[in-house]
């Protein structure tokens, strides 16, 4: 499954079936559906990756913004923004 699709709309934003999200170009495992959360952006959002090296992040010119790429092939996956997402206690289920 593709993490981010810029053409024709994102089909996995509201997709919450159990499974693994992989890179659309190389099938590298990126995210588990267990780490997915509802978000106001048009793309799916996750709290953590499958493996530490599943993705690479590169700081952008906008403060607190990072470009997220597949850790294996460099396919563009979207962006991460500092302090965006659920609070830690929400992630831990407390």
The first-level CATH class name of the domain at 20-81: Mainly Beta
Q: Gap between N and C termini, in Å?
A: 30 Å
User: What's the CATH architecture name of the domain at 20-81?
Assistant: Beta Complex
Helix content: under 10%
Mean pLDDT comes to 77
How large is the radius of gyration?
13 Å
Percent strand equals: 25-35%
CATH topology of the domain at 20-81, by name, is: Metal Binding Protein, Guanine Nucleotide Exchange Factor, Chain A
Tell me the number of helical segments per DSSP (H or I, 4 or more residues long): 1
Number of strands: 7
What is the N-to-C succession of helices and strands? EEEEEEEH
Q: How would you name the CATH homologous superfamily of the domain at 20-81?
A: Peptide methionine sulfoxide reductase
Strand order of the largest sheet: 5-6-7
């Amino acid at each position: 499954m593709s993490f981010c699709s810029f053409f024709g709309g994102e089909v996995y934003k509201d997709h919450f079936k159990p499974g693994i999200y992989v890179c659309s170009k190389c099938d590298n495992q990126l995210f588990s559906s267990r780490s997915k959360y509802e978000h106001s952006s048009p793309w799916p959002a996750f709290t953590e990756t499958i493996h530490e090296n599943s993705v690479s992040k590169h700081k952008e010119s906008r403060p607190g913004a990072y470009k997220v790429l597949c850790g294996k092939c460099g396919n563009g996956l979207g962006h991460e923004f500092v302090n965006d997402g659920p609070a830690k206690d929400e992630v831990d289920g407390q």
